[in-house]
Amino acid sequence: MREYLEVxxxxxxYRVSIAGSEKAASEVLGSGSVDVVISDMxxxxxxxxxxxxxxxxxxxxxxxxLITAFGTPTAAVEAMRAGAYDYICKPFDNEExxxxxxxxxxxxxxxxxxxxxxxxxSGMRGLWVGDSPAMQExxxxxxxxxxxxxxxxxxxxxxxxxxxxxxALHLRSTRAGAxxxxxxxxxLNEGVLESELFGHVKxxxxxxxxxxxxxxxxxxxxxxxxDEIGEVPMxxxxxxxRVLQERRVKPVGSSSEVPFHARVVAATxxxxxxxxxxxxxxxxxxxRLNVITxxxxxxxxxKGDIPLLARHFLAQMREELGRPNLDFSSAAIEVLERYPxxxxxxxLQNIVERAATLSDTDVLGPDTLPLALRGEREPEAQxxxxxxxxxxxxxxxxxxxxxxxYLLTALQRAGGVKTRAAELLGLSFRSFRYRxxxxxxxxxxxxxxxxxx
Length: 453
Hints:
single chain, alpha/beta, 3-stranded parallel β-sheet, transcription regulation, ATP-binding, phosphoprotein, transcription
């Protein structure tokens, strides 16, 4: 039977190791390279249940399928209580066993992904949680709200970590093994946004060559994060309100509705109450979104967190650059604490990354920080009033060239990610996109791979 299963599963494409006893099985398990165990309940003097217990004791345990010719309810209950993935009786169908192995692998993959996500959360926490009372309150609210399916609205200035909080809500919930799907509402026009969220049917518009499930449906039991919700057009707001109320979506071009089960978390850097008064945002949608509101304070209101965050980012750079002795001087920390950080935590992270990358010494002093942080002006190439105007000079062309260079530099530094490039230049995404299109710039201009918008 062992040899038969080896041939059967190898033909399907699996790498198979075999063991003829409890002891041999323990040695194979010790290699740490096993994803699924298939074991007989009877192993001569040994027992498949002992193999199961050995497998379950590993730090990253494989799934275990037990096979027996003695299919009694008692044996099945004992195996499942001990942690077996499933139990199959002889004689069995080959296709049934192969399907069982496939599903066991899928479960293990989800479990491993979940473990990695939770590990990343522990590291992620340092990016946006400090010792300040305001952030401790935010973290407490996240812990309390995460297990529910309640819709959450995250508010705060750009760069305060709204997406990190959304991911934390997802990872601290029972949905952590399902997808977390972010959608930048400001980066998509009205038609594309509706198709992305709700899906579409074949032929509903030019280019719709097949049916496509929208993000709300395809996310399954996961979390859909609607970033920049304040940028959603009014006509789409009406549809989104109905979707959130009914928990059903109508794909573009379809006459029937489809239920969805994902949790919706939204975020905005705008004051939606002001947008409502200005007639740019629906009041009923606001009430539907802010069942629970998590408000992130700007970094200037929690200056005590700046040293903690700066050292956290520097620890990441130590590992990335292979320079374990990198550290800030006390004078540099004092400079950072005095700065108001209009770009918030994201700006601080960029400053730390720049200082660590460009510094020739392991001690990062004030001179490694941008001049603006030190209260100094950038040196001017020429004194005012001494600029020479060459023949045929065009101010418009000169400014266009300068704008293009800045846009390209920002794209290169942001790795092609347009939203981040816009933040580096202090522009809104829409303004950046307009200027980039005007100059014919694309994500590929620097020779790199295209980045997400």
